[in-house]
Design goal:
mainly alpha; elongated; 79% helix
Length: 326
């Protein structure tokens, strides 16, 4: 068919469709769908038989305009954020309990390494934690306030500084996942050795319980979600190493997307940990039962949200993922 005849035969449909789109005219959905399908079919025909013609340009512009109208970005429901934290993320996280276990085991291993090194190398604690911190802590011990470091700053400044620093550490743990996950495990090594040597230092001073009941008020959540952040980095590395049925690039993209969602889930917990460290930990005079209650509640919250609840939700939905995009 000659181009002129093709245009003459179909121009009335095109003009009708253009008028509907330009003036937002109400039309039956079936009629609108039929017009859209016809226009895209005509565009394919024109590209085949009249390439580089004005007809192709016109139909392409018309089809693009229609596509934007029909498939424009929908508004997210008001409870979208709630759904992300209560359904999407826990269902997603159920798939990655293996990576969480690996991050936890590596962290635990290096806690033991840190404590063992501190016990057998006299200068190890100073080398790892720094002379300034060790000397300051020893001075606080002599003053009868071994946990005085948590009282040096104002509550809000300490809360803000600690929260931002923890989020920065989590971002590194996620980003280093691009190094095939090894970078995330390196973050676990650093933090594990630091914690192990730190706790042994207080044990050596005869203050293990005093330090533990104070530090773990905020540390239970803080350390736990740093491990979760490392898990998000391992998800990225896993996507690069084991693409499965996907192409390696597609598997990497999925790993980054899933890892980022896991990372986002840690932010509220970092805020809680920062609040506890800034406003609660400094009260070293609190009774043991209250400190134990806070620590137990924090541990229960972490275990429920990242281990128990994802399993329950998975069993309820009988599907490993929650497909609503964030």
């Amino acid at each position: 068919m000659r181009e002129a005849a093709f245009v003459k035969q179909n121009k009335d449909k095109w003009l009708t469709f253009e008028n509907v789109l330009s003036n937002n005219i109400s039309i039956q959905p079936d009629a609108l769908s039929n017009l859209y399908i016809e226009v895209t079919d005509h565009l394919s025909y024109a590209k085949t038989f009249y390439p580089n013609s004005n007809t192709v340009l016109y139909l392409n512009e018309l089809a693009s305009k229609a596509h934007q109208k029909i498939y424009k970005t929908k508004k997210e429901p008001k409870n979208r954020l709630v759904t992300f934290f209560t359904k999407e993320c826990p269902l997603l996280f159920k798939q990655h309990h293996r990576e969480l276990l690996i991050a936890f085991l590596v962290f635990t291993l290096f806690v033991i390494v840190g404590a063992f090194s501190a016990a057998n190398e006299g200068d190890f604690v100073r080398a790892f934690l720094g002379d300034g911190y060790v000397n300051m802590t020893l001075e606080n011990i002599e003053k009868g306030d071994p946990m005085g470091v948590y009282k040096q700053q104002g509550e809000f400044n300490m809360f803000l500084g600690i929260t931002l620093n923890n989020i920065k550490v989590a971002l590194f743990a996620f980003a280093y996942g691009i190094l095939l996950g090894i970078g995330s495990l390196y973050i676990m090594m650093q933090n594990g050795i630091m914690l192990g040597s730190f706790q042994y230092f207080f044990y050596d001073q005869g203050l293990l319980w005093e330090s533990a009941r104070t530090i773990w008020i905020h540390g239970t959540i803080e350390i736990s979600v740093i491990i979760v952040a490392a898990c998000s980095g391992l998800v990225v590395g896993n996507g690069m190493l084991f693409p499965g049925t996907y192409t390696r690039l597609e598997s990497f993209k999925r790993g980054v997307k899933n890892g980022l969602k896991i990372l986002m889930s840690t932010i509220p917990f970092f805020i809680i940990a920062g609040f506890l460290e800034g406003f609660v930990t400094r009260h070293t005079e609190m009774p043991d039962w209250l400190a134990i209650l806070i620590i137990s509640t924090s541990l229960g919250l972490i275990l429920f949200y990242y281990v128990i609840y994802p399993i329950q939700l998975h069993n309820k939905h009988k599907t490993p993922t929650y497909h609503n995009p964030i």
